[in-house]
Amino acid sequence: MSHRLRLAIGLTVLTVAMACASGAAAGALADTAGTVHFVRTADPAFAPYTDNPSPQTQAWESAHFWRMTVFSPYFDERTRWFQHGWVYDDAFAIYPGSALASQHPEWILKDSAGNELYIPYACSGGSCPQYAGDISNPAFRHYWIEDARARLAHGYSGLFVDDVDMEERVGNGEGQQVEPIDPHTGQPMPAASWRAYMAEFMAEIRAALPSTEIVHNLIWFANSDAGTADPSIRREIESANYVYLERGVNDSGLTGGSGPWSLNALFSFVDQVHALGRGIVLDGASGEPQGIEYNLASYFLLSTGNDAVSASGQTPDNWWAGFNVNLGEATDARHPWSNVLRRDFTGGMVLVNPPGAPTQTISLPSPMQDVNGNPVSSVTLPAASGVVLRGSAPAEASPPVSNSATAVIATQTIVDTAAVSSKASPSTASAHRDGAGSTKSRGTTKAPARRARRHVTHRRSRAHQARHLGAGSTRQRAVLTRVSGRVLRATQGTVAIQVDRRRGNRWTAVEHLTMGVGPRGRFTRLLDLRAATRYRVRAVYMGASGYSPSRSGYRIVVLGAR
Q1: Is the pTM of this model over 0.90?
Q2: In 3-state terms, what secondary structure has residue 43?
Q3: Chain-centre distance of CA 55, in angstroms?
């Protein structure tokens, strides 16, 4: 092939790929739940692919990286060929030795003795790389926002905000946690005040940059796994387009079961984020195929079409084939099946075996293909693993009968809905906590790892616009709705309720709840749902000792004003 022909092909590929990337960004909300949105951090190790990339490399990155987290000023001139960068900043870092630290020492948090405090990371010899800035200080916030605005002016489409910690993570030079003094009161700053200050700061950033895609790297288990039940945490999440879940499911601190550090608890937090209309980035810490596939399969279990995934070490020279997969439209929500979690798509299915679970070998009723295109008739999943399968998802069969002497009773799950009353306040689907209690337990296992790495030296864009409906609009009315049902022949166990809302031509998850079934297998919960909106509701019985899992069909709900 001649040099001239190779150059022409390279330029054509670059043009097509950049056009496709631009189109994908503009219409990403229309993507299916089976679409891979890959995010790469352009850290120093990735510099060989960004310093002076060829047109072919630029085209490859634009085609494969939905977004990149990048760093200013290094990437400022590179926005001409990659327009979907999230420019990095830390929520409250002030760097020792910087002009900012010397000009505004009052912006650095202090302990009761007046000593400067740090973000407790990589501390050594009595100091750490970052002072802890005073997020309650209006002048510090204003400076931070204007600095971010200046960075974005170089052509970045988004802002990646690190350390949006809804836990009070402030310490001394030895990395030991220290409660800072609140400059407004002169007293130690309570954790609740810290969360309120951080939420207010994030809301100010959102208001100042309304068309910028904003990503928060946060602690998903903050305030004892309170999630969006904490008003400050809810406000913080609502101030972002995406929340970044560092290490994803590759976090070695995750457990099985339903305790506070469990995979189930992480998934529950993601459901809460989705219920607020925000997306997630399921970061991946693993660079090995098994760990990467576990994280990708978990991403597909959760994806609404407006989420993203990552993995370690992915470059144009080292690209895992699974990220080329498109499974199409989801045909159901995640649910238990044959002792694993499953979700089906028009183009395949995924299975995930949680941490701490026994190894599962599952025979498929019909052959499928793995991510490399190899035929698969059975899969073996050890604990903390997953598989992505392409082809027609096999029809679900009841789990195999146990070899134990105890017979497994087959169950049948039925779900129904009924409007109870309506009110005129805006509402998204949210649970009334006077219903059956959640089954989530409060274990004492080790918390997931935090900051095994940090973003360092060298940040993505589609603004998420909230609907503002008129005060008298029927669509704004909230209808109190009873979701109830029964698991026939079961006297114990747990039911998961999945509520999806129709948006355009696809269903989007807005609520995922769990509740116990009573002695007669009954369950009930009250929800606020919007009037004149199309929903579908499904109940999945998780199974219990002596009882097989089962699930209902979808119940379509269209609520009118009352």
Answers
A1: no
A2: coil
A3: 33
